[in-house]
From TrEMBL:
InterPro entries: GH, Glyco_hydro_5, Glycosyl_hydrolase_5. This is Glycoside hydrolase family 5 protein. SUPFAM superfamilies: (Trans)glycosidases. One of its GO terms (molecular function) is beta-glucosidase activity. Belongs to the glycosyl hydrolase 5 (cellulase A) family.
Length: 474
């Protein structure tokens, strides 16, 4: 087998035959995320807190088991059975490099990544390696695992140097693997100047190319993979590259402006938002990959009788998005494969040891809206509204829209900082306390909650994905 490569607007195989990559992201695995696995704050915080409560060895054991159970052969077999052919694998740089020991590769970092790439390959599934978390944090959100909203990656050259170094090491390791469809060097950059991201891509491109001339690169646009407007002629310096948008539709979230009925205006707005993200590529005949998209879903325990109706609406959004993508023969990767029940194609059963251990805690997190993703802040809005009012009243309007505006409006900025960073920090230790006194065997059982056999399937979502995976002939 030979490498996939980018040819004009298409991804092709060795016979120049078009390959449309359709699949999902393995979110919350090698880069754990709060709403995906149920903890508050960031991964580095909960890892430290758990080590304090159960000790370093037991804590490492738990996380290693979590990684093992989260994706196994049964997951790959199921994924393939849906007709999907590609998994985007987000990972955290901390698996490969310790902040206290920079530029020293941790060989153990490859253990699970190699394992899952091989599992996928055995089932004929391509993988795309996505550096979701870079030193210093390349974006302003929780998934950059920096614990702050300042994306310091852009302010310190050394963070960038270390990331270039890491990609060189990764490319050396994976250069011969043809089941890897390509490298996605940086998830969702948010560079307020819009120029440093291009300089960084120049550097990472030439460093990877020195050791690996084969694999395609999938480059995210700035501002959460939505904005290529400052990229100019940069593509002329980069070969074998696809450009990645993240196409979350506002209609797929609780904050939608109105119920989604698939009306003409709504579909136009959905399409327009997608087209805007890919304008730069379309003007130049470049290849587009939709690296993240997809609605979130209602849960009976929180949304009660409205659950089915809300989810039908979300499936409508999903179908209409796929309609657009099919017409464009777009490659896509829906977010996300597995979680605890908000967005995943499969999700951990509520009766498992992990979910019963955290039942009350998760309900509290939900009530306080301390995860930002799709947050429903209706029960705590009155607490934060005075802060929004104060800024609105005291700060001249021309200074109210701080970057990453317009993705972050004033309300979402206050929510992100006050709830998702500040309040959630106070719940990190209480999360870890749930594990106090647990034996190694008990930790194993809790981690096993994430295995395929302990998961339920979101059949409505999976059916729509399968139907559409076969709609566009390769
Ligand atoms: O790890 C993922 C993460 O990659 C993803 O990040 C969010 C992507 O969406 C951003 O906002 C959207 C930007 O485009 C507009 O059109 C949408 O309406 C917005 O929702 C958001 O700020 C990022 O954090 O999200 C899920 C994580 O699990």
């Amino acid at each position: 087998m030979a490498y996939l490569k980018v040819s004009g607007t298409k991804i092709v195989d060795q016979n120049n035959k078009e390959v449309i990559l359709r699949g999902a992201g393995l979110g919350g695995w090698l880069n754990m995320e709060n709403f995906i696995s149920g903890y508050p704050g960031c991964e580095f915080q909960i890892r430290a807190a758990l080590a304090e409560v159960v000790g370093k060895d037991k804590s490492e054991f738990f996380f290693d088991k979590f990684l093992e159970y989260f994706f196994q052969d049964a997951d790959a077999a199921f994924f393939k059975s849906l007709g999907l052919n590609c998994i985007r694998i987000p990972f955290n740089y901390r698996h490969f490099e310790d902040d206290m020991n920079p530029r020293v590769l941790k060989p153990e970092g490859f253990k699970h990544l190699d394992r899952v790439i091989t599992l996928c390959a055995n089932h004929g599934i391509y993988t795309i390696l996505d550096l979701h978390t870079a030193p210093g944090g390349q974006n302003t959100d929780w998934h950059a695992d920096a614990g702050t909203h300042i994306a310091n990656f852009w302010n310190h050259k050394d963070f960038q140097d270390r990331t270039v170094w890491l990609w060189e090491e990764l490319a050396k390791h994976y250069v011969g693997n043809t089941w890897i469809a390509g490298y996605n060097p940086l998830n969702e950059p948010t560079d307020p100047y819009h120029t440093r991201v291009i300089d960084f891509y120049d550097r990472v491109y030439s460093t990877i190319r020195k050791v690996d001339p084969h694999h395609a690169l999938f480059l995210d646009g700035n501002t959460f993979a939505s904005d290529f407007s400052h990229f100019g002629d940069a593509h002329k310096r980069w070969e074998n590259c696809a450009y990645s948008i993240h196409d979350y539709s506002v209609y797929g979230f609780p904050a939608a402006p109105e119920p989604y009925v698939s009306g003409e205006d709504q579909r136009r707005r959905m399409r327009r938002s997608y087209e805007r993200k890919r304008e730069w590529m379309d003007a130049r005949g470049l290849c587009v990959w939709n690296g993240e998209w997809g609605p979130v879903y209602a849960r009976r325990e929180y949304d009660g009788q409205r659950t089915e109706a809300i989810n039908e609406e979300r499936y409508r959004v999903l179908r209409d998005q796929l309609d657009i993508y099919n017409k464009d023969r777009l490659s896509w990767s829906i977010w996300t494969y597995k979680d605890i029940g908000y967005q995943g194609m499969v999700y951990v059963n509520r009766e498992t040891p992990y979910m019963t251990l955290f039942r009350d805690f998760l309900a509290q997190k939900q009530r306080l809206a301390i995860d930002a993703w799709g947050a429903d802040d209706s029960q705590v809005r009155h607490i934060y509204q005075p802060l929004i009012d104060l800024i609105t009243k005291e700060v001249p309007s021309e200074y109210q829209n701080l970057y990453p505006f317009p993705v972050w409006k004033l309300e979402s900025r206050v929510g992100r900082l006050a709830r998702n960073i500040l309040v959630s920090e106070f719940f990190v230790k209480p999360w870890a306390e749930h594990f106090r006194g647990k034996s190694v065997e008990e930790l194993d059982v809790i981690a096993r909650s994430f295995s395929f056999e302990n998961c339920l399937h979101r059949d409505g979502l999976n059916k729509i994905l399968t139907d559409n995976a076969s709609l566009v002939a390769e």
